[in-house]
Amino acid sequence: MKTKCPGWKRANAERHKLFEGPRRSGRPELTEDQKMLARKRQELARVLERARSPGLSSGMVRELRNHVTILEREIAELERARNSE
After folding, report:
1. Which of 18, 30, 37, 54 is a good FRET partner for 1, with 20 to 30 A between their CA atoms?
2. pLDDT above 70: percentage of residues in the chain
3. Which domain does 41 fall in, by range?
4. Inter-CA distances, 80 with 5, 21, 38, 52, Å
């Protein structure tokens, strides 16, 4: 059985930092547009993976294709905006 004394919270207040990865030193922080682009790319990868799943109805496949088209268009627009800066 694990027990914690009243001072446990104070003693372990910074413990979470032991499990964090190394900080990005020297790299600039991502802009909101870059974060949005990364999220859209991740979402596209998830939708494409889902579209490859066996046993989907034709309606579901059609909806996933439409979603892929929309995401690809949004990604292209974000990339164009980023390149024009």
Report:
1. 18
2. 85
3. 30-84
4. 57, 32, 14, 29
